[in-house]
Amino acid sequence: MLTLCQALNSGLRRAMEDDDKVLLMGEDVGRLGGVFRVTDGLQKDFGEARVVDTTLAESGIVGTAIGLALRGYRPVCEIQFDGFVYPAFNQIVSQLAKMRARTGGRTGLPVVVRIPVGGGIGAVEHHSESNEAYFAHTAGLRVVYCASPDDAHWMIRQAVAGDDPVIFYEPKRRYWVKGEVTTAGPPLPLDRARTVRPGTDVTLLTYGGTVATCVAAAEAAAQEGRDIEVIDLRSISPLDVATIEESVRRTGRAVVVHEAPTFAGFGAEVVAQVTSRCFYSLEAPVERVGGFNLPYPPAKVEEEYLPDLDRILDAVDRVLAA
Questions:
Q1: Residues 127-141: tens digit of each pLDDT
Q2: CA gap 145, 15 in Å, rounded
Q3: Which of 7, 102, 133, 238 could be joined to 152 by an S-S link, Cβ 3.0–4.6 Å?
């Protein structure tokens, strides 16, 4: 049994053992082991040339990683908190995402940008953002979101080994959740969704920190005779629309759940895909449950902001009553 944090550490360790061109860089990732200790012990074992403590300059971290990737390395950058990524936004969307198209496919940039994301730890703005929609909207980036220790271990290894730039989200409030990590190989391709809990009445489409919340909601609903399917999207760009379509066609009802504000959030794209592909199978309009269109609140009212069982089950009630 490993925590999600430990599973990421073991995945990064294996990636570095498998390829000496893999290196880690970021603020305090070396001697400290990262603010959440994801990289704990790696500088001691691989040296300061491969686990690099950088200055407090996100644009410099990603810009340097781009240069290293052009020279054949596979950098893994840590952005210390989700809200700190914005100084590197230009480097990510203008350079990292564009290089393959700019060179007619001749040059890839195998850079992974790790971002602890979301709320639930009592932190305020800049430390509890959910900014996945910005990057999912940017062509040329893979955007993935682990939710369990097993996925954390294998998805980070798959991301590092691939030739595409990857925005790799880690739900920080789940860092200390424990689970089994398989040893036989990656259970799924990086861009495939997972059916976490099968069901027949409603499909809950979710990812990251709200996967466990949706499973808890489904278990609570089961006590009242409702059979809810929970799908962890895992990859939001590209999106596994085939798995989504198969489930919603079968259940006839869908609720999309994420931490980010619903206004222009990624859930709107999921709703559009479901409505376009499953229109004649839907028994009710697709519902969304998410954060509110406000700056992240203080810790004392954080629970009112994050999607919880009651809000999810209310949405389930609405689609079942239609």
A1: 999 999 999 999 999
A2: 18
A3: 7
Closest of 144, 161, 256 to residue 208, by C-alpha: 144
Q: What share of the chain is helix, strand, coil (3-state, %, to 5)?
A: 40, 20, 40
Burial classification of residue 4, based on how many CB atoms lie within 10 Å of its CB (0-12 exposed, 13-18 middle, 19 or more buried): buried
pLDDT, residue 51, reads 98
From CA 31, how far away is CA 300, in angstroms rounded?
33
| Per-residue confidence (pLDDT) for residue 125, from 0 to 100 | 85
Question: 303: which 2 tokens?
Answer: 């629970």
Alpha helices by DSSP H, the chain:
4-18, 42-46, 58-70, 89-90, 99-102, 132-136, 149-161, 211-222, 241-251, 266-278, 302-305, 309-321
Give me the residue label for tokens 């990636």. 15
- Do 136 and 92 meet the contact criterion of CB atoms below 8 Å apart? no
Closest CA to 43 of 23, 66, 58: 23
**258, 290 in Cβ contact below 8 A?**
yes
Q: Could you give the CA distance from residue 155 to residue 162 in angstroms, rounded to a whole number?
A: 11
The pLDDT-based confidence of 6 (bands split at 50, 70, 90) is very high
Question: Is 127 among the catalytic positions?
Answer: yes
Residue 193 in this model has a pLDDT that exceeds 90: yes
DSSP run (H or E) holding 76: strand 74-78
Catalytic residue among 127, 137, 153, 258: 127
Sign of CA dihedral 116, 117, 121, 124: positive
Those residues whose C-beta lies under 8 Å from the C-beta of residue 61, and which sit 6 or more positions away, are 25, 26, 27, 54, 77, 79, 88
